[in-house]
Amino acid sequence: MKSNNRQSSKRLTMALVAITVILALGAGCSTNSDSSRRNYSGNLESITVAHAQFEPTALFCIAIDQQYFRQNGLNVISHKHHTGAGALDEVLNGKADVSVGAAEFPLVNKAFKKETISTIGSIGKTEFIYLIGRKDLGIEKVSDLKGKRIGTTAGTIAEFYLGRFLDLNSMDMQDIVFVNIKAPTEYGNAIANGDVDAIVSAQPNANSVKERLGANAVFWPVQSNQHLYSLIISTNEWITKHPEQTSRFLTALAQAEEYATRNPAKAKAIVQKQLNLDTEYMETVWSQNKFSLSLDQSLVLAMEDEARWMMNNKVTTETAMPDFNDYIYEDGLKAVNPDAVNIIR
């Protein structure tokens, strides 16, 4: 009963926040509004954003470059991270207001821990996680992974995709020796020095490791057509206290999406420059991403799939599936673009 009361209270609070947002935004945030929106006329307000340095965060890069945040009254203080999970942890530690780029897997992990956080939107869907192994250490085909030392960062979505890849190839996490490598920057040395036989990594780090190993590398995609979501996440407390900032933040990202749609070559160049990526890599990876601001039911289904995997593999001691609707805040995006929200309640 206490759980039901708590959920009802949260929904009531969020409903009141939504009303505040809609009244504040007025006609300026209609579905058909575009980059010609009038600039915000209030005071510039600072917001600290922890973000992962991956191309699925392209809309954030574009919004920074085109000053859409400033046009919407937000002075973004940027904190860069090598992983989305690290960016999310900075929010939970009170060092940032919003995280950009954490995938849904860290959100599932935090839901099991009853953290009071929510995603306010996804800005990208992608397939860019790979397993790279060393041929000279006995890896030629997928079945050779049995008994091998495979490294990635624990608690990230790469760990889930490793487990799922093994499951789809008649193995599981107990069939390998899992090695927790705390930072992707350590992957290359770990596999080059023989500390692990293989690693699982997102791009662009995966390509760097592959190039470092040369002809000695085996290289497999591990997502099996299941998208990774690049999420915007904050604490429920911050969202409730900052409804206008939340929607203005999303408005800036909606403008960035419009810019990318109308100017794909310029958008690609912006992201390439901000993330310091080479041209050949950008041509390969750009098509693997779908950059759009949304909240889809497919996100809920992905989180439920990952939660089942975590319970089955004892990544969590919890045995009950969280209600992931309690970790999605729709009202901010509905105020900006209701067509971008497709969550079944």
Query: Please, what is the CATH homologous superfamily of the largest domain?
Result: Periplasmic binding protein-like II
Helix-strand pattern: HEHHEHEHEEEHEHEHEEHHHHEEHHE
Total beta strands:
13
Beginning-to-end CA distance, first to last residue: 20 Å
Judging by the overall fold, what is the CATH architecture of the largest domain?
Answer: 3-Layer(aba) Sandwich
Summed up, the domain count is 2
Our count of helices gives 14
Written account of the structure:
Helix 2 crosses helix 11. The chain has helices at residues 2-25, 58-65, 68-71, 84-92, 104-112, 157-168, 187-192, 205-213, 236-241, 243-262, 264-275, 279-285, 297-312, 331-336; strands spanning 45-52, 74-81, 98-102, 117-126, 129-134, 149-152, 177-180, 198-202, 217-221, 228-235, 289-290, 295-296, 341-342. It has 2 domains: 2-126 and 227-342, D-Maltodextrin-Binding Protein, domain 2, CATH 3.40.190.10; 129-221, D-Maltodextrin-Binding Protein, domain 2, CATH 3.40.190. It starts with a helix and ends with a strand. It is an alpha/beta fold and 345 residues long. Strand 6, helix 6 (157-168) and strand 7 form a beta-alpha-beta unit.
